[in-house]
Design a protein that fits this description.
This protein is α+β, with helices and mostly antiparallel strands and 705 residues long. The protein folds into three domains: 3-50 and 60-300, Beta-galactosidase, Chain A, domain 5, CATH 2.70.98; 313-393 and 450-464 and 491-609, Aldolase class I (TIM Barrel, Alpha-Beta Barrel); 625-704, Golgi alpha-mannosidase II (Immunoglobulin-like, Sandwich), CATH 2.60.40. The strands form seven sheets. Strands 6, 7, 8, 9, 12, 13, 15, 16, 20 and 21 form a ten-stranded antiparallel β-sheet that branches. Strands 22-23-24-27-28-29-30-31 form an eight-stranded parallel barrel, surrounded by five helices. A six-stranded antiparallel β-sheet has the order 32-33-34-37-35-36. The protein starts with a strand and ends with a strand. The mean pLDDT is 97. The chain binds (2R,3S,4R,5S)-2-(hydroxymethyl)piperidine-3,4,5-triol. Residues 315, 345-346, 390, 457, 459, 504, 506-507, 523, 526 line the site of (2R,3S,4R,5S)-2-(hydroxymethyl)piperidine-3,4,5-triol.
Length: 705
C-alpha cells in the first residue's frame, strides 16, 4: 500500500510503493539528499543507511554531486543543476532553508511535500512526491514561488526532479531515439563519464528522442535484474541529463524547456513543473515496462475501463482528396468489416486540397461536403460506428484567411524570416486570444457535429520562436504553448465527456505521459510498414502500453518503404496494439476483405488481453523470429504473436518460452485444441506453426484449463 513515514525529527522520509521503497533526508545544511531507491526497507533499515553528510574529497570536488534530490546551482556543486536561478542583484547561488513538510494520505495515494526557501532571497521551493496504491511509479515535481513583492527572479533552469541511482558499476543507459517515420528505436549502451543529454528543442516531445530512459548496472536482461527508469510527463521541449561522475555516481535530472529557455518569475508568481516519474523494478526491462504499462492504465489514461475500438482512418486511402461521397463509401466498407470508429483525416476544411493551403480555416469545405459534415457523421453513426475527425489546431498555412487576418499570431521575431516547414507556421498558443480562438472553433466543431473522436495532429517543429509583443518574457511561450494545448484538451473533454482524443505529432512526435493523461491513444508513427513497425512498436512498448499504441493495417506496397508484406503479417503486427485499418479498403479484393473481417473479429476476441494484459517481449527486435505474448491480468489467457521476417533453408524456428505462466497449470490452444503443460511452456517453450517463407506470422490463443 502507498504510504509515507517520517523520522529523524522530521528530517527523513521513507516512501512505500507497492513493492519498493524510496528514502530521502536533510543534511545539516537543509539540503535534501538521497538515501535509498530500491527494494522495500523498514524505517529502521532505511535510517541505518542515511549516513553522514557528504564532504568534498578535496578542494576540487563537490560534496554531493549526484547525491541530491534536486541539485541546485550554489555552493560546491559542479554537476548539472536542476535548479538554477538569478536574483535581481545578479546572485546565482541558491541556499536551502527547510520550512517544514506535509504528508497527506488520501484514498489510494500518499503525498509528501517538502517546503524550503532561500536563506536570503524571497524564493520558495517545494518538492512533491506522490505514491499510489498498487503501482511502483513515484511521481515527483517541483514548485517555485517568488515570495517577494518587488524583484523578478529569473529561472534559468527548473527541473522537475533529480533521480539518484544507487552505487553500482557497469551502468548502462537504455533510451529510445529516432526520426520521423522511425520513432522509438530502442538503444542501449554504457553511460559515458560526464553528461549525456537527451532533449527536444523542437517545442514538441519529438521524434528524435523520447523523454524516458532506463538505467541498469550492466547486468539486467529482459526478465531479470535491477532497472531504474524515469519518464517526463511533458509534451513540449524538454531536457533530461544523465550525469556519471568520474567516481561512478549516476543521477538523472530532467524537466521542461531545453537549454537556454528561461522564465522570469514575477513577484507573487508560482511555477509548477510537470511530473518526472521514476520506477525501480527488479525484474529487468520487461518487468519495468509492464510496471509502466500498469501505471499508465491505472493512473494516466483517462478511461481505463474502456476497450479501444477498432478504427478506420482515411489518410493513406484518400490523403487530401476527401469528399462526402467517397468517405461515405469508405464508411460502408469499414462498417462491413466490423470497424467501430470511422476517422476522416486531413483535407475536409478551407482550401486544404494539399499541404500548402487552408490550415487555420476550420470551416467545412462546401465544394467537397456540400451539405456540411453532418450527413457523413450521421451516416457513420447510422452504420453503428463512432465518428472521428482530424484537426491540427496549433498550425497555420500562410496561404489561409487566418494568417492573412492575423499574421502576428504565429511564433516569430520582428526581424527574422518565418521559416515554413511543410508549408506551415506555428500559432503561438501562449497568447490567450490564440488559444481561446482554437478552443472556440473546436468546441463548436465537436458540439455541432456530434464528433466522438479528434485526431489532434502537430506537423512541424518550432523555429524562430519569438513573441514580439511580449517584451518582458517571451521565452515562457515554450512552456505556455504546451500548457494551452493541455488546457484546451482538458476543457473539451470536460465539456464533451464522450469525446476521445488521439495524440499525433506527424506520426510519433507526441508520445509521452503528459499528453497521455488527456488523450486515449497515441499515433505511433507515420511509418505503417509492418516490418519497420516491429522495431518501432518494440521501442514504444518500453514505457507506453499497447492499448495506447495506435496501429493500422495499410496497403501494399507500403507508400513509404515500397515493401510488400502479406496481409496476415500486416494484421498481426497491428493487432499487437490498438488495431486500426488504414488501407484503401474500397479497392481490396474479396478474399482480403473476408480475411480482414475474420481478423477484426479475432482481434475483438483477444483485445482485452492485448489492451489490459501483461506484455512479454520474447525476442530482441529485428530477430529472425520476433515473438510477443500478452497474459491477461488473471493469468487465465495468453495471446502469443510470432513473426518470422526472413525464412532460411534448413533452419527451424526456435520454440518461444512463455514467462509468466503457471507451471502447475495446463493451457489449451483455443484453435487447435492441443493442450500444453505450463511447466513445459515455461522451460521448453511453444513451437509456433508459422507458414514457410518470409513475413510469416501467427497468433496463438491459450487458455488455462
Ligand atoms: C501526419 C499524421 O501523422 C498522418 O497520419 C496524417 O494525419 C497527416 N499528418 C495529415 O496531414
Amino acid at each position: 500500500m502507498a504510504a509515507i513515514d517520517c523520522a529523524a525529527g522530521g528530517r527523513m522520509w521513507l516512501l512505500h510503493t507497492a513493492s519498493t521503497s524510496y528514502a530521502l533526508a536533510l543534511t545539516a545544511q537543509d539540503a535534501p539528499k538521497h538515501v535509498h531507491w530500491g527494494p522495500p526497507l523498514t524505517l529502521t533499515q532505511a535510517l541505518s543507511v542515511v549516513g553522514p553528510d557528504p564532504e568534498p574529497a578535496n578542494s576540487f570536488d563537490g560534496a554531493a554531486d549526484g547525491l541530491e534530490e534536486l541539485a541546485v546551482d550554489g555552493g560546491p556543486r559542479f554537476g548539472p543543476p536542476s535548479l538554477q536561478v538569478r536574483f535581481a542583484d545578479g546572485t546565482r547561488a541558491f541556499e536551502w532553508l527547510f520550512l517544514g513538510h506535509e504528508i497527506v494520505e488520501g484514498e489510494g495515494e500518499a503525498l509528501l511535500r517538502l517546503d524550503f526557501r532561500d536563506r536570503h532571497y524571497p524564493l520558495q521551493v517545494s518538492l512533491s512526491y506522490r505514491v499510489l496504491d498498487g503501482v511502483d511509479v513515484i511521481e515527483r515535481w517541483t514548485t517555485v514561488t517568488n515570495s517577494g513583492d518587488i524583484d523578478v527572479v529569473e529561472l534559468l533552469r527548473l527541473d522537475s526532479a533529480a533521480w539518484v541511482i544507487p552505487p553500482r558499476t557497469g551502468y548502462r543507459l537504455s533510451e529510445t531515439t529516432g526520426w520521423w517515420c522511425a520513432e522509438t528505436q530502442a538503444r542501449r549502451g554504457e553511460i559515458a563519464r560526464g553528461e549525456t543529454v537527451l532533449t527536444s528543442r523542437r517545442g514538441i516531445t519529438g521524434h528524435h528522442a523520447n523523454p524516458s530512459l532506463m538505467i541498469d548496472a550492466g547486468d539486467a536482461g529482459e526478465e531479470q535484474g535491477e532497472v531504474w527508469s524515469a519518464a517526463l510527463a511533458w509534451s513540449g521541449s524538454w531536457r533530461i541529463t544523465t550525469a556519471r561522475t568520474s567516481d561512478d555516481r549516476v543521477s538523472v535530472t530532467g524537466g521542461f524547456g531545453h537549454d537556454g529557455v528561461s522564465w522570469r518569475l514575477q513577484p507573487g508568481e508560482t511555477l509548477a513543473t510537470p511530473k518526472f516519474l521514476g520506477l525501480y523494478h527488479a525484474s529487468g526491462f520487461g518487468g519495468s515496462s509492464r510496471a509502466w504499462h500498469d501505471y499508465a492504465v491505472k493512473h494516466v489514461l483517462p478511461h481505463n475501463d474502456e476497450i479501444r475500438p477498432v478504427l478506420y482512418n482515411s489518410w493513406e486511402a484518400t490523403a487530401f482528396t476527401v469528399n462526402d461521397q467517397q468517405q461515405r463509401a469508405l464508411a460502408v466498407h469499414a462498417a462491413d468489416l466490423g470497424v467501430e470508429m470511422f476517422v476522416m483525416d486531413d483535407g475536409w476544411f478551407g482550401r486544404r486540397t494539399n499541404d500548402d493551403a487552408g490550415l487555420g480555416d476550420w470551416q467545412v469545405n462546401r465544394e467537397r461536403f456540400p451539405e456540411g459534415l453532418k450527413p457523413l457523421v450521421d451516416q457513420v453513426h447510422r452504420l453503428g460506428m463512432r465518428f472521428g475527425l482530424w484537426v491540427e489546431p496549433e498550425m497555420v498555412n500562410p496561404d489561409s484567411d487566418l494568417y492573412r487576418e492575423h499574421p502576428d499570431w504565429i511564433l516569430h521575431y520582428a526581424n527574422r524570416q518565418r521559416t515554413e516547414l511543410r508549408n506551415q507556421l506555428v500559432l503561438n498558443f501562449a497568447r490567450a486570444e490564440v488559444a481561446d480562438w482554437a478552443l472556440q472553433w473546436l468546441r463548436e466543431l465537436v458540439g455541432e457535429h456530434g464528433i466522438d473522436f479528434l485526431k489532434w495532429d502537430m506537423n512541424r517543429a518550432f523555429s524562430e520562436a519569438g513573441w514580439p509583443s511580449n517584451t518582458g518574457d517571451p521565452d515562457r511561450l515554450w512552456i505556455e504553448h504546451t500548457r494551452a494545448v493541455y488546457r484546451i484538451m482538458d476543457t473539451l473533454r470536460a465539456e464533451y465527456p464522450g469525446l476521445r482524443i488521439e495524440a499525433c505529432g506527424g506520426g510519433g512526435g507526441r508520445i509521452d505521459f503528459g499528453v497521455m493523461a488527456r488523450t486515449d491513444q497515441m499515433w505511433t508513427s507515420d511509418n505503417t510498414d509492418a516490418y519497420d513497425r516491429l522495431e518501432i512498436q518494440h521501442g514504444f512498448s518500453q514505457f507506453y502500453p499497447p492499448r495506447a499504441m495506435a496501429a493500422w493495417v495499410t496497403d501494399n506496397p507500403n507508400f513509404l518503404t515500397g515493401r510488400t508484406i502479406p496481409l496476415p503479417f500486416r494484421f498481426h503486427v497491428a493487432m499487437c496494439g490498438a488495431l486500426g485499418i488504414g488501407g484503401d479498403i474500397g479497392t481490396w479484393a474479396g478474399e482480403d476483405l473476408a480475411y480482414a473481417r475474420e481478423q477484426i473479429q479475432l482481434y475483438k476476441e483477444i483485445r482485452e488481453v492485448v489492451q489490459y494484459g501483461r506484455l512479454y517481449r520474447l525476442s530482441p527486435p529485428a530477430a529472425d523470429l520476433t515473438a510477443l505474448s500478452y497474459l491477461s491480468p488473471d493469468g487465465d489467457r495468453a495471446v502469443v504473436f510470432g513473426f518470422r521476417t526472413a525464412g532460411h533453408y534448413g533452419r527451424a524456428d526456435a520454440a518461444v518460452r512463455l514467462p509468466g505462466l503457471d507451471p502447475a497449470a495446463q493451457y489449451v490452444d483455443e484453435d487447435s485444441g492441443v493442450s500444453h503443460h505450463g511447466a513445459v511452456l515455461l522451460s521448453h517453450g511453444l513451437t509456433l506453426d508459422l507458414p514457410a517463407g518470409d513475413y510469416a506470422s501467427a497468433v496463438v490463443r491459450l487458455r488455462r484449463v
